[in-house]
Design a protein that fits this description.
This protein has about 210 residues and is of the alpha+beta class. Helices cover about 30% and strands about 35% of the residues. The protein has five helices and twelve strands. It has helices at about 35-50, 105, 115, 125-140, 145-155; strands spanning about 1-5, 10, 15-25, 55-60, 65, 70-80, 85-95, 160-170, 175-180, 185-190, 195-200, 205. The strands form three sheets. A five-stranded antiparallel beta sheet has the order 3-7-6-5-4. The chain has a five-stranded antiparallel beta sheet with strand order 11-10-9-8-12, with no helix packed on it. It has a two-stranded antiparallel sheet with strand order 1-2. The radius of gyration is 17 Å and the shape is globular.
Length: about 210
Amino acid sequence: AGRGRGAHQWHSPAGLGLYLSVLYRPQLAASRALLLSLATGLAAQSAIRRSAGISIDIRWPNDLMIAEKKCGGILVETSVEPSGQLRHAVIGIGINVRHTHLPEELATIATSLHLANGGDYDRQKLLVALLKSLDDEVRLLESAHSAEALLERFEAASTWVRGKRVRVEEAGGYTGITAGLSPQGFLLVQTDEGPRTVLSGGVRAL
């Protein structure tokens, strides 16, 4: 469900969440690795909408959100060939599904599909939808000239990509307004000192 701020423990009671890792050997250059995370976000958004009837937001680059609270996350780890091509990618996905309550330290920042909409959701149904959507997204990403289309779809799917006032934790911390994505999928932020490129996440709304 998420990590507490103090003890840094993971709250994940058995039978309530969906957690999986998927191994891919995509035909992609290492320079496009971030696009895998964005594609996975789109796959999760589609799968949750189709299997649970819930519309979620995506906080760049890898957080799944419902009403400003995190309901899931994505972590992509890659291995690179000497040629610069990806050898493989391990895509980890965690989604809070059936949690009826969360610890006090998480309740203000995290949620679940059940808490958001009250349903008793089937994790197996969500898993099947997620794997199908993820496979579709990775196949699209491997096709020619797909990066630009992916970035356009991610921008349309996420309220965090453009026009949102945020604080960024990297590079000493700064604030600004999100201004779209770079061709590599990095988040652009317009600050009072000029444009900045967010490289590693840590983006929060002001």
